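ESCALATION

Customer reports they have been waiting on this structure for their group meeting. Please prioritize. Original submission:
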Amino acid sequence: MNLSYNHTSIRLTGRWDTRDSRVATATATGSYIEFAFEGKMAVARFDVLTNAYPRLHLWISLDGGDMFSAPIDSHLRIIAKEDGKHVCRIIYKGGTEQDRRWYQPLTGKVSFIGVQVEKTAELPADERKTIEFVGDSITEGVLIDVDFYDRDTDFISSKDQDNRCYQDDVCATYAWQTAEALNLRPIFMGYGAVGVTKAGCGKVPPATEAYPYNFDGSPITREQPDYILINHGANDRPKPVEEYLEQYAALLDVIRSMNPHSTLISLSPFCGAFHEELGRMITEYNQKNGCNVHFIDSNGWIPLSPLHPLRDGHTTVAKNLIPILKKIIED
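Update from on-call: job pushed to the front of the queue and completed.
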């Protein structure tokens, strides 16, 4: 039987556009699908009509087991070893920063239609608290794996962009690792080259303009996260510090107005940019607005190069971040 994406045995986590009853669409890596079924086989169905080549990659796991990556396609077949009740999870792993993920036609998106199953099954509830990560290419997992870097061409060449589906992995980021360690359900809003002062790859607007939307014309409808962590600044370094702080405060205004019950955490850029000034601004912002935005100074956690941390760099960030964030959660 064919089940629509909004069936009770299916759960979507992340920034999903569900205005169309036929398909749910997400453009941020880390967005994921879970569905339960009974039997041995299920088929996940996607609309890939406008997806660009090379197609973005997904992580697929069954019953919480090992993960395997695959390019998105119209039909992805999952076969269990044993008959019975199963839960499958499919995650938007990574793709190409330059694909269109904001304006139509969307070429770097996951458009999920639903699943074909032998029998339906009840999807276990997920009672974990949620955390939203708001950031840039580091948050979305760009260039974590360099195995497929073409060393005969310039590092930022279009040819190298063709390999990003192999090089990028949101599940290896400091953000995903931190959420897993603290038993939080992650929501991602990370787009390459975006900052509080500038637009990014694929014409994604600056963070303040983009935050209220899944993509252009699609207002976010997900429930308020329990926690929201912001990591912006690496792409704002060419701008004067005054402009950066002004736009950062504007982003805080937008996020607070839309999520009045969320706990906000500001994590300074890993490259060390503006970390002292940002810390002072957060203190002043809290005093001015009578709020309690937490500030975490990440300066010195990892080397300045590479700008995009590899897997071990993300793990180092997570090891530093986890105990600090745990204390904020427990307080």
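Sent to customer with the following note: The mean pLDDT is 95.
Escalation resolved.
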